[in-house]
Amino acid sequence: MPSTGVCLLPLTSSIPEKLLPHRKSSCSRFARRKREPSLRGSLSPLGCPQHCRSRFIFRLRVRALGGGSELKPETVNAPESISKSIRFPDVVQRELVSIALPLEREDEEEEEEEGMGWLGSKGTGLESFPKRWVIVILCFSAFLLCNMDRVNMSIAILPMSAEFNWNPSTVGLIQSSFFWGYLLTQIAGGIWADMVGGKLVLGFGVVWWSIATALTPVAAKVGLPFLLIVRVLMGIGEGVAMPAMNNILSKWIPVAERSRSLALVYSGMYLGSVTGLAFSPLLIHNFGWPSVFYSFGSLGSVWLTVWLTKAYSSPVEDPEIRHDEKKLIISGSVLKEPVKTIPWRLILSKPPVWALIVSHFCHNWGTFILLTWMPTYYNQVLKFNLTDSGLFCILPWLTMAVSANFGGWIADTLVSRGMSVTTVRKIMQSIGFLGPAFFLTQLSHVHSPTMAVLCMVCSQGTDAFSQSGLYSNHQDIGPRYAGVLLGLSNTAGVLAGVFGTAATGYILQHGSWDDVFEVSVALYIAGTVVWNLFSTGEKIID
After folding, report:
1. CA of 143: how far to CAs of 150, 208, 270, 301, 483, in Å?
2. Residue 213, pLDDT score
3. Helices of type H across 77-122
4. Closest by Cα among 484, 275, 453 to 378
5. Are 1 and 100 in contact (CB under 8 A)?
6. CA dist., res. 361 & res. 269, Å (int)
7. Which residues are registered as beta bridge partners of 61?
């Protein structure tokens, strides 16, 4: 395919005025998106009728004779019909080497003319919206469904335990059973995603957990063992989501946009909690607790339809992505062949990897306790009814959704201004540890429901800064193995969920909520020390 037009000028010549670019205009005879080689050139010097302008592209490269120096290329207009009959003015010593450029380069031309923002070119319309952010939004919506399907049990467990006469230990067993399955697929999901691509793995996960969600009422009525099995199966499906998402974004998102993209995706989890906690009480009140699982589970099929038609594991596989965006992504992310083998010895020999694992455990202990037990805390300690418990649980998660994106913006801004990635990750994660630790210690000193809810809100709001800390660090230290690294550290995080959720039920039978919060605070402080001593933002695994 011919690529560019070249016009040779004498050293002393200036570019003829008639060769300078004219204002773009449109012609109804030519479609903007027609996929054929085409040209832009100035009309008068090319002998074209003035009415026959179009938006087809070619590059005019002007080269000085003798010296070999090249002047700035100019983009000019020309109708497609004259592609083989270009005539330059007589003042030009001419040699037309080639005449056409494929039309998909048009967006690159416009990028050069209009500039490039962090969301892509500044054009208008859906066609100018960056494809990488379509992928981010789809991952965001998957995580929205993920937490909707996860937190509905924390609300539904209240009428379910009354109906089936479950004690706190049984409730803790049911809540923790989800994490048994979630634990099984963390590393496996990361390996699978790194080998076959994140699109297939994340699609599988959403379908699997949606089916398990819809089967939950049936299993509960059959018997407790069947309910536990379904909860394990649901955990298996959700377990692959984070490694698969991490694999996809490591290929689609440049490092300068990493924190804010991950923050947006993870805010989907928080908004999923908000949505689930807001609508679950209403559905239970009007249609009974089984309606929560049926309605939420059915949403996965809607998401899957869009995912299969719009998503790709990497920009290399996407036939619709614009050339300028693909070039931007390739220059700022890792696009290598799929992983064939995992260098386990190398990965496990790195102290920053262990810092991730330990810190993830410490972080998730407190997070999962709040996720699964917060409605019970509001109901038993603050004496809120079922509806109030769900509504007040919304506030901390809504705060997390906002603060996660705010933290992501801060982190990317600091990196873009020259601060090292290592320093940024340590600052953000320290806030994500010490903030919740401080506000949880205040719960034992407040005596009004309003102040207790405020402490919860502030605790979860500062916790969300972790999305720009440890949750962004997998792609920093080993972007090619981002799925495996996330699987490793999140395995530790899931163990924290399993032990922490079950232990909370045991502690509440023999102690108080103050004891529950003290354990979380101790782990937050331990995580802060380990993270600041051993973590890094540099790539250590290639």
Report:
1. 10, 14, 9, 14, 16
2. 94
3. 106-114
4. 453
5. yes
6. 18
7. 6
